[in-house]
Amino acid sequence: MGSQLSLIAHTAPSIAISSYIDILDEVHYLSQLNSSRFLKTCKALDPNGEILIKVFIKPADDYSIAEVQKMLLNEAQLLAALPNTLNYSKIVESDRAGYLVRQHLKSSVYDRLSTRPFLETIELKFIAFQLLRALDDVHSRGVCHGDLKLENLLLTSWNWLVLTDFSGSMKPTYLLEDNPGDYSFYFDTSQRRTCYIAPERFDSSKYQKFNNMNSKLTPEMDIFSAGCCIAEIFSEGSCIFNLSQLFRYQNGDYSPVDFLNSHLDDPILREMILGMINLNPHKRSTVKDILQKYRGTFFPEHFYHFYYGYFAELATIDDGLPMVGKTYGTLQLPNLSSNMDKIVQKIYEDLPKICSSLGYPLMKQASCCPKGGNKILKQLTLPGIGTILLQDPALEISSVADESALLLLSLLFHALRGVKAASVKMMCLELITVFSQYVSDSNKLDRVLPFVVSMLFDEHPSVQALAIHVLSQLLGMTKSVNRINDVLFTDYLLPRIKKLIQVAKYNDYVRVALAEELGEIARSATRFNDMAITANDEYGKVMEEVESRKKQKRKLVHGFEQIAVNLLTDSHSSVKIALLSNILPLCSLFGREKTNDVILSHLITYLNDKNASLRIQLVKSLTGIAVLLGPLTLEQYILPLLVQTVTDSEELVVVMVLKSLKTFFSVGLIQKRYYFDVAKIIAALLLHPNTWIRQFTLSLLVELSRKLSKAEVYCLLYPIIKPYFEFDVQLTWDSMLSSCKKPLSRTVYNILCTWSLRSVSSLFWKQVPSKHRDLFGNNSVVFINKDYVTKNYGLASGYKIAKSPIKLADNKEILVTNEDKGWLEKIMTVGLKDTDLWKIAAMRSYAFNVAKMLARKPETITPYNPIIENGSASKKGLSSYTPPRTVIFDVMFLNNATQLNEGQHMIIKHRENSPSSLTTAFHRLALNKSIDLTKSIQLTKAAPTLTSNLDNVYVQLEASKLRPQNIQRSTSSDGDGVPSMFVVKNSYEGNDENIKSFLRSVDVGPAFKHFPEFGHASSARNSLTAASTTRPFSRLKFCFQLTETRSTAITVISAALHDPYVLSGSEDGMVKLWNIPKILAGEIFGSSLSYDAGSSIMDIKPFPEFDLFAVSCKDGTILLLKVNVHESKGTRAFTRLQVVRKYKVKSSTEFVTKLAVVPGDDKPLLVALTNSSEIILLDPRLMSEIRRLKNDPLHGAVLSLSVGHDKSSIILGTFRGVINIWDARFGTLIQSWTFSDGSPITHISLLPALTKREGQTIVIFGGSTKSMFTIWDYVKRQCRLVVTTDETVPSIDEYLATDVMMDHLNKHMDEASCDQVTSMVLEGLNVLVSEARSNSMFCFDSRAKTMIPLTSDYDASAVKYEPLQLTANTTVLVRQRQVSDESGRKAEMTLHNDTINSIAVAWNKTERYYISGDCSGIVNIYK
User: Fold this and answer.
1) Is the pTM of this model over 0.70?
2) Is residue 728 part of a domain?
3) Are 242 and 194 in contact (CB under 8 A)?
4) Which residue has the higher pLDDT, 705 or 930?
5) Active site annotation includes 319
């Protein structure tokens, strides 16, 4: 701007600087930042945010800055694409002044160095690295800065460095050596007297020669200034040169080495700076040389390959910078506050790559879950990684040792304040938790903790809850505390947690989260306090410090006490349950005395709480608390309460009490004098109908016997429990379990409790007045018997005594009245025998106490209502309370939905003048679901009354159900099997938005039978009786052979369950329907219908009562294939096979090998087994995936599949002989076992139990090479029957279920063979199988325990099996050796010359047909 500008410029403006700003459009002046003579700097606002304006006051009206403006704009264009430069976005010239406008950033590097928290070394290095990279980018575009100093290095809140205020076009290149005026005028704007100008720029000759015209800056000048900046950055703000020192350095009278040695410890850094500030510009290192030379030594490697590039990408998200041309919105850094959501989401998605690039170790959590639902501490579930365990990484990893994670954390801290969406804030908190692993403990507390605590008061409850969890995790990861953080809890955390409780007064979710984590926070507080005491020991402590530490501990306990009492007395049971889930650390902090006074005094009141879940959690937590408090508290307070709770009305509470008592006995906390009283109280529970209660009672008695001597067991304990066993037993688990007397049925037990409540004139429930108390302080309940004299109890009158009393097990008798006799007759009509009446007398005391508990009203949960506050309610509030109502849902199918768009929500308005408008638009189904707003969905048969004045009833159309363009095609062609569209209405007439929102969230859909494309339940039904289905098979008569599919293997044959036709599937993808009666009658000689699926058929399964089949193909598709039937005059004609549903497995290499159908109207299920051993659960109504179950690959590939009797368990058989049972409702593995030599299990099928005692049984082919198949009770894991392959009698040890051992599985993996049975089908109690070796077929009758050949022409006695009883529960059929008699043997039928792949049984009224298909494509029909 001219060499003499410093002489002619105004010393002070004649008017206020704000007056100069007012002429700019859409700009509002805020403040003046500095008042240098050259450029006045102001802060202002424009529509895009804060801007900075540098005002140049012209020395004369005719002074022009046009040339400077042109050069600045050209420079801005060159640097516009760089994310680390910030140029002037607009230059304005007026008559009096010139204006340079750019975006305003609040902080420079100079400001940041003096701001807490102070930067760590890794952050300083990254700033220096960014400076060098920015210079490299600028110099590569032919631009030099000219005025590098800390004030011109701007820094964002996430430590991204930006170069600004380029001065090459405005300030002189060379200055006078003997006149500091120009330097002060142009460069010392901050008046700090620092001088980072390269020495060669102080050259009077060049100053006079060029007169600042045609003189250009060189990169070496910027290198010198950059070296000075880096030296100041690492010396905590101390400058390496002032003006006088620079002149002396230029003359050789000053050396910066002394400064560097005194301020910098790193010799590599000193070497780098000295190379940059070399007095000879030609010997200075270039930027590229510096970056290359100090790569991996001073600058970490991850700066080069990850951090800088990744941060630059984040800084330019959404395509970076706009173009030049306007005052606002031009050449500014992207407004990252609006893009922070995208930035956090990107980091969240890239987390696996980030950890891999930086070498951050992630310890993955094993797939197994902890038993009992215990909370796993220090873990986090992340996308693309799974569940990880938070840890203390090894410092040998360079990226961990240098705490490079601070760079990412700084960005996340900035994001946490800028993001708006709750989900993104939660992502941010999770990322902070992960990266906090890799920073020091002091940085966890000083840098991370304050941001997490700030989220405790976020507007979103989900964010608050997660912040509490992250706070707990962060404190748990901290292993050391410095003296500054000694009072972290008392002065910082506890006051904010107390405030949080007040803020979350009406937010149950946040209070539950706090209660759940309070124990872990207390554990950390205890650890911090112990570390502080240890630190005092190391430094040597005096009495004042000891007293101070005691005072600090009292303050800490008092703070936690206030929080704990607040949560212990919370009005919502869920908060108390959460607190109890991890209360032991809190008790440990309080100590024994305080726990007794504060914790236990509140907990004992919970036993009377009406919420059963709270009582269950209380009993669980009392076990640990009792161990902490010791035997005295246990015997005086806790044990009497637990014994009293044995009669709780909630049976799961009783189970937990028994489990807790067993723990106390096993650890020896209870004295022996209490053993027998406990045994007397719990012995009657051996007759309880609840299996868990009986088994835990047995385990408790076994534990008692282990603690007693033999004399005590048989003289004192055994007489108490003897009446409850069939015979004298040893006090072991197996012996007692097998010999327990049959318990009361649930029906009898319920009647007994009802009798206790309703008895009026009863002697059975009459008690003897007694003041006796047992050892636990509870009143003894004693009932009268015949030994008492009637007049002593007022029985001479007022009671009508029945003639026959009840006899007890000890031959005592109980008087009963006629009323009692009536109740006894009710009990006997539901199955109780006369000889078992003593059982109800034994259960009398227990049932009496339980009935009193049942009489109490259940807990009612009242939602928060602003009308009701502080426990008082106005009359208006009470009178406006609306009682619960029933809301009816109505599901209707659409006949024509062309007016609807996919994924829409529609509002249907009912008009009184057009009540039939909906009737014409929709086809109504007779399906109605009602929902009780206080409970759960209910089904009702009554048709709903939908009034015509319902206004704005919300109807939700799910996107998966709305395919208007495919509606007509689905009824006229195979198409894609698109489901029919339907809408859901409800009868709610109120205006409560919460209720409306809830009703919209209820998943209501039509029943399976109401979908029109599935057809109606078939009217042709075979009148099959139980006798006909269980009738044993005899030798089959060959009827017909079909060769239509010759040369193409038949893979599967499936018979309809109600009509005499079968579907076959072949390798060429053809599905064919065979009408058996017409084939045998000679009317047709081949298949009736066929469908080309386009890929090999893997399995076909029928849907009961429908002409519908599920078909799986090798290309990964599952089809629902409907057999269209035309009925006329009692005859049924099959017209075509139509696809009504289609599902495609996502993976291109995956396909379904086995199918199973679970029928049901409301919750039908299609179970699919894939070749990758995954189980896919589908809802066949819409073919939507419900859940995937991943079987353990170590158990081997899954070969067989069956659904249990309860329709909710899935039984799998694997290649390594493992049986896995899954619960389909919850997706959990219930149990796994194997037996014998673990050969592949090729087939599993359910077998109807012959008697109730036999339980739930399955037929298993495989598992042992010594047997053809076995029958198991899969609930008890007991083998019922073994069918051997030879005459060898197997050992019972071979057929005992054993837990899965990996060594055993690996041993037999290569020895497995699975070629004995190729196919099987279950028909009633008959098991039909085909053998691979002889292509013959056999039938096993499970009732008669015999096996006969079906297709051989041997005599009936050709194959004999001798039954042997191995144990009381296990029978073995041993195959007998045959005597060869060629003369008596007839020729064997060879109807199949190839392997039989599939067999099926079809019924025509009472006639039974047997169909088989082989690999050559031949289908045989037998009768």
Assistant:
1) no
2) no
3) yes
4) 705
5) no
